[in-house]
Amino acid sequence: MSRISQRDAFWNRIYELAVDNRDIVLVIADMGAPALDKFRINLSAQYIDVGIAEQNAVALSTGLALEGNKVFAYAIAPFVSLRCYEHTRVNLASMKVPVTLVGVGAGVSYDDSGPTHHAVDDLAVLRILPNLRIHNMTDSIMAEAFADICCELDYPNYIRMDRKVLPTMYAPGSDFSVGLKTFAPSNELMIIATGNMVHRALEVKSALKSRGANVGVMDVFTFPIPQQAFLDEIQNVRQIVTLEEHNIIGGLGSAVCEILADNRLLKPVKRLGMDFHKGYCYRYGGRENIQSLYGLDAESIIRKIEAALA
Q1: Average pLDDT over residues 60-67
Q2: Residues with Cβ within 8 Å of residue 130, at least 6 apart in sequence
Q3: C-alpha to C-alpha distance for 283 and 137, rounded to whole angstroms
Q4: pLDDT of residue 2
Q5: How far apart are CA 72 and CA 47, in angstroms?
Q6: Can you give the pTM of this predicted structure?
Q7: Which terminal CB of the chain, N or C, has fewer other CB atoms within 10 Å?
Q8: What are 99-156's pLDDT values in tens digits?
Q9: 186: helix, coil or strand?
Q10: Residue 119 carries which DSSP code?
């Protein structure tokens, strides 16, 4: 599982489920994958490709779901989230229609395709919609597990997948019902991360431990953040650093600050993410290069955390 993408882990499991459940239907917006080829060939009655027409995919998925099908609508992350925003808001969120939107390419994992393909503001715009939940995948084990979870949901949700193959962090059979997981507790400073940045947070934690610093790491993978579970985990934490490969406005860091403010908890928070006040990122050179431009490389994060601890 450590060498399989989140996409393949998710769709392979959906295929297994769909063989036994003919109510599972895929609506694809001109996307490909080996598991999707199996669907197209072996389960053609459960596979619909609408072409490069993501808005039609959401509209069609709504109708299929209202007829009792369990529908998955799949496209590149910024297109299935932003291009379809009004359709998602009106068709799915307002009526609580249980369609699963599946987007691949979280953050800047489409590093070779420029800002049109960067999913760096989808969390911000989707997390404000009523009835809709976002599940941001951390590894392939989680992606496979959410294939089963999504089939049981009675509300719309958005599965946000990384394009790259990331290391496995969770054990098979892990419980993802809470929506967050603390990997390393600490009362001094907690790095709260989401998606691929959880891996970076653990890298930073390991480096800081060798320098004598006690830093914890929390993975938040469900939005809205489960409030009580979150409060229980950070109640005794002195400082918080949020870490996301997403616009610093409206994403994980903003969601954390909202919870703290609403519950009158005064804690220092340093938000680390991508600042687009000067415009979107038109730079190339690979994902690591883009991350370094926004201070999301390990050394930049370490310097900022050491300054906070000092």
Answers
A1: 97
A2: 93, 94
A3: 25
A4: 63
A5: 10
A6: 0.95
A7: C
A8: 999 999 999 999 999 999 999 999 999 999 999 999 999 999 999 999 999 999 999 9
A9: coil
A10: B
The one-letter code for the residue type at 171 is A
Strand 222-223 to 133-136 pairing: antiparallel
Q: What angle do CA 87, 95, 124 make, to 5 degrees?
A: 55
Nearest to 230 by CA among 204, 196, 201, 262: 262
Count of H-run helices and E-run strands, the chain: 12, 12
Altogether, the residues listed in the chain come to a count of 310
Of the candidates 224, 205, 112, the residue with the CA atom closest to the CA atom of residue 157: 224
Token duo for residue 272? 């680390």
Residue 308 carries which side chain, given as an amino acid letter? A
pLDDT in tens, 160-208: 999 999 999 999 999 999 999 999 899 999 999 999 999 999 999 999 9
Rounded to the nearest 5°, which phi and psi values hold at 213?
A: -95, 140
**Which amino acid does the sequence have at 36?**
L
Q: In this structure, are residues 230 and 265 in contact, taking their beta carbons and an 8 Å threshold? A: no
**Span 204-249, pLDDT tens digits:** 999 999 888 999 999 999 999 999 999 999 999 999 999 999 999 9
How many other C-beta atoms are found inside a 10 Å radius of the C-beta of residue 32?
Answer: 10
Q: Tokens 């393909």 label which residue?
A: 117
Mean pLDDT of 254-275: 97
d(CA 107, CA 59): 25
What does the block give as tokens for 243?
Answer: 């870490």
Nearest-angstrom CA–CA distance, 39 and 164: 22
Residue pair 50/63 in contact by the 8 Å Cβ criterion: no
